[in-house]
Amino acid sequence: MAEVQREHAERQYAGELAALARDDARPRPPNWRLSPWAVATYLLGGTLADGSAVTPKYIGDRRLIEIAIATLATDRGLLLLGVPGTAKTWVSEHLAAAIAGDSTMLVQGTAGTSEEAIRYGWNYARLLAEGPSEAALVPSPLMRAMREGKIARVEELTRIPADVQDSLITIMSEKALPIPELNSEVQAVRGFNLIATANDRDRGVNELSSALKRRFNTVVLPLPDTLDAEVAIVQGRVSALSRALELPAEPPALDEIRRIVTVFRELRAGVTADGKTRLKSPSGSLSTAEAISVVNSGLALAAHFGDRRLRAGDVAAGLLGAVVKDPVQDRLAWQEYLETVVKERDGWKDLYRACREHGG
Q1: Which end of the chain has the smaller Cβ count within 10 Å, N or C?
Q2: Closest by alpha carbon to 83, among 249, 229, 286?
């Protein structure tokens, strides 16, 4: 069997989930694989009774994760809200993996997502041959989650057209999905719930109706509070992705990651870390996820076209691509940052030269 490029969370961390289940004597909601305490330990990391370590999947405010988990133990859905790159999808996948042992009940929201993708569709060959029947029905991931008492996930909910969004209202309020063509319905098995993610910075956002908002408890996932926290997130994810991609490069020095994260944080905030210089902020989100992408791209360059050590020349292209989304306004902001900050900062001359050589 071919080796997959990216394992689902429940397979990638199967050992940790099994160890947590063995160590977990706390009460579990119906159909949950782990107790809420164990789910939190899985996401935030910890040490089990046998001394084995659970790696943190999310670095941030523990209370936010506890609120998210507690919400899923009730009859309200969970809406993870935040700017792009704040680990909303990552958290939703790991919550579903820990609670239901299955993170694949997924609907990816786009402007073209139809009501059939939320509710159900039909095998049209059978529909024409036999008419409406259970055999001709094609269940959506939400319908399968309802039948099996698992967690369904809807990514980028606000990118889905408003009338399609509202098809969730009956599912969330009645915990039932009517099938008028068969004069029947699917009732949710205990353990079913829904995690949705959304951000309000993308173009083409469709606001949620007040009726739908009331059926979710919203948890806002913020950008990391401190430089050290963001560096730790980038370092951890880069290490995991480098192993998965089998990049033949040395792990990047912490100083190089810190420098990239500093660039992102200063441009996001519109001011240097010491508070002395005001900066123009680019139009992009410059999220932690994009910082991870810049480091990984640099590692690939260093591995295949360099000396396997991450250097300024390897990250310059990634930085330019991450910062300059608008070719006019963002380029001006980036050039100003290079001249007023990067050029004058001790130990950053190599980064300045590399960015200039690359067209910055």
Answers
A1: N
A2: 286
